[in-house]
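Structure ticket #2291
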Amino acid sequence: DYLDRLPAAGRADRPGRVHESGPVRIPPARTACTILNAVTECAEEVPMDRAEGRICGEYLYAYPPGIPLLAPGEYIASEHLRIIRQTEADGGTIRHTHSLSSGAIVCLEE
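Resolution: structure written out below.
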């Protein structure tokens, strides 16, 4: 299953390998509001180390392969943050739809 190889997918130096800590399991979404509500509310960039428990205000994709980790309106869990850090440590990138900083996530204002 390609989701099991998320951080290593598409990398020539480690094609098709499962991450050293085991398969990546994206946690089930826990939504706080609709996507429409989330993208129309006031938002702010929040450093990743303070984003746990906040409501995401943008899409975040692990790239490659482009699998969405978070959507607007979903709560950010510690597991999401772990996957983001591990993906970046493995040489992958996290694409944001709004944040200009790789160390921050756009969240709804509290």
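Closing remark: Residues 78-89 form the longest helix (12 residues).
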